[in-house]
Write a structure and sequence with these properties.
- The structure is a single chain.
- This protein is an alpha+beta fold and about 375 residues long.
- The protein has three domains: about 120 residues, Butyryl-Coa Dehydrogenase, subunit A, domain 1, CATH 1.10.540; about 110 residues, Butyryl-CoA Dehydrogenase, subunit A, domain 2; about 140 residues, Up-down Bundle (Butyryl-CoA Dehydrogenase, subunit A, domain 3), CATH 1.20.140.10.
- The chain has 13 helices and nine strands.
- A four-stranded antiparallel β-sheet has the order 2-3-7-6, covered by helices on one side. Strands 1-4-5 form a three-stranded mixed β-sheet. Strands 8-9 form a two-stranded antiparallel sheet.
- It is globular, with a radius of gyration of 21 Å.
- The chain starts with a helix and ends in a 9-residue tail after the last helix.
- The model has no long low-confidence stretch (mean pLDDT about 95).
- Its cofactor is FAD.
Length: about 375
């Protein structure tokens, strides 16, 4: 993939913002269990970073998706996974369908302030009984006059404690499970919404994640994104961007930990010489660096195909699968070379170890990625009639 001076300028803008507004505060936010989303997103919005690939008429830059990939890759400079994940929800997980299919009125009301950083967005798809199996969600939206009346609940909602609106997937009619769902914009202060608890997670400690319930929540039917009944299709399209984002976001995060490990093992003396001088150490780091470059090639190829209008379901799934596993491999291998220092809670490699584990679960577990790839290869039997 060829990058222009505009791509490189975007990288530099992200680096400057991360150096000034993020990394100096990450440790504090980790301890508090939440970062100030409105404050930070507003700074990102003022810098033009939240809508690089969104329509100009709603405050975006109108650029192609490769610029969103630069955003994801650059966020790997953050000393932890929480802020990159939360920002990814804002840019490439909760807003793509709204930007692509929403009415002008709906986009002006919710997309524009999300691009400016005045609104925080969240995505409502997963439930306690339906995570990777999106078709099995139970949350319902029944039409009563000009309103949707929503009942049910969502789980693992990133940004949920601070969000102004949710991109909600709900069953809005009868029929096949892939054709009975709608994506609906739900303002989070609407009567009947209750946030039960902020979840106490292994990693991603600075990102608020909640469980949400909906009890007779009324929102106007005009808050439907695109066509009612097309929500499953729209969400699958959003997942493609989410998975490409996940692949790109892994690159610099892995490089950051590998480089930190090189620095640490060069200084750490073991039996009278730097730990890095041991062949098993520098060979292993060379292997990991090679794997990062292989992932980069896969992600860039998928992005190029996506820009060309090709179906990237297989490549995006492969990239997501490889990214989750590589982040785990890099963190685990590097932690070993840090020894006891790496086992300390606040060490960068320990945080990467905790945060990176989510990569093989969130946004579609490894097993789901393998299922998708197998299906597209024609090697998996059809197990149901859906």
């Amino acid at each position: 993939m060829k990058f222009t001076p505009e791509h490189e300028a975007l990288r530099q803008t992200w680096k400057t913002l991360i150096d000034r507004e993020v990394n100096p505060y990450v440790d504090e936010w980790e301890r508090e269990g939440q970062f100030p989303a409105h404050e930070l997103f507003k700074k990102m919005g003022n810098a033009g970073l939240l809508g690089v690939d969104k329509p100009v008429e709603f405050g975006g830059s109108g650029l192609d998706f490769s610029y969103a990939m630069i955003c994801s890759e650059s966020l790997g400079l953050v000393n932890g996974g929480s802020i990159p994940m939360a920002t990814g929800v804002q840019i490439s997980m909760a807003t793509p369908a709204l930007a692509r299919y929403g009415s002008d009125e709906l986009r002006q009301e919710f997309l524009a302030p999300s691009i400016s950083g005045d609104y925080v967005a969240c995505l409502g798809v997963s439930e306690t009984g339906a995570g990777s199996d999106v078709a099995s969600i139970k949350t319902t939206a029944r039409r009563v006059g000009g309103d949707w009346v929503i009942n049910g609940g969502k789980m693992w909602t990133t940004n949920g404690a601070q969000a102004d609106w949710m991109c909600l997937l709900a069953n809005s009619g009868d029929g096949p499970v892939h054709k009975n769902k709608s994506l609906i914009v739900v303002p989070m202060k609407t009567k009947g919404i209750s946030i039960v608890k902020k979840l106490n997670k292994l990693g991603m400690r600075a990102s608020d994640t909640v469980q949400t319930f909906f009890d007779e929540v009324k929102v106007p039917v005009r808050y439907t994104i695109g066509q009612p009944g097309s929500g499953f299709i729209y969400q699958m399209q959003q997942f493609q961007e989410e998975r490409l984002w996940a692949g790109a976001g892994t690159l610099m995060g892995c490089e950051r930990i590998i480089n930190a490990t090189i620095d640490y093992t060069r200084e750490r003396q073991v039996f009278g010489r730097p730990l890095l001088d041991n062949q098993v150490v520098h060979f292993r780091l060379a292997e990991l660096k090679s794997e990062v470059e292989a992932l980069r090639s896969l992600v860039y190829r998928a992005c190029e195909d996506y820009l060309a209008g090709k179906d990237v379901t297989m490549l995006a799934s492969m990239g997501k699968l490889k990214a989750g596993r590589l982040r785990r491999e890099v963190s685990d291998a590097c932690l070993q070379y840090w020894g006891g220092a790496g086992y300390l809670w606040d060490s960068p490699v320990a945080r990467s170890y905790r945060d990176g584990r989510l990569g093989s679960i969130g946004g579609g577990a490894d097993e789901v990625m393998l299922q998708i790839i197998s299906k597209l290869m024609g090697t998996m039997p059809r197990l149901d009639n859906r």
